[in-house]
UniProtKB/TrEMBL annotation:
<dbReference type="Pfam" id="PF00011">
    <property type="entry name" value="HSP20"/>
</dbReference>
<dbReference type="InterPro" id="IPR031107">
    <property type="entry name" value="Small_HSP"/>
</dbReference>
<dbReference type="InterPro" id="IPR008978">
    <property type="entry name" value="HSP20-like_chaperone"/>
</dbReference>
<protein>
    <submittedName>
        <fullName>Hsp20/alpha crystallin family protein</fullName>
    </submittedName>
</protein>
<feature type="domain" description="SHSP">
    <location>
        <begin position="24"/>
        <end position="136"/>
    </location>
</feature>
<dbReference type="InterPro" id="IPR002068">
    <property type="entry name" value="A-crystallin/Hsp20_dom"/>
</dbReference>
<comment type="similarity">
    <text>Belongs to the small heat shock protein (HSP20) family.</text>
</comment>
Amino acid sequence: MLMRTDPFRELDRLTQQMLGTTGTWSRPSAVPMDAYREGDAYVIVMDLPGVSTDAIDIDVERNMLTVKAERRPVAKADDVQMELSERPLGVFSRQLMLADTLDTEKITADYEAGVLTLRIPIAERAKPRKIAIGRGDGRRQISG
């Protein structure tokens, strides 16, 4: 139900980790995620540790879901001397092409402990349903 839109995204992520580069609004870093089906919904879980909820943007246009987040530097006092800085800062983004069988009008989002969870229900029209068989004279056969 989900399609990857950028085959080089993982290579970019590894390069950014090795070089210590941060994402910008024009070239954001990748957001690690899991996606799975749970009952009648697809669940997407993204790691965004250290990001406040007001720094997360979730948009859906047609079938393209975009999640963008920014981890900003923490304000430090003038007398603080940084000894080690490994936590990435900057902009993180992920785009997913959603199938037509998902109901993009009813997406829900929760954010807890640095994890963003999106639930996308399967559209009613895409769920399996029984089709009544006619008798050939325009009337439906009633089975008991």
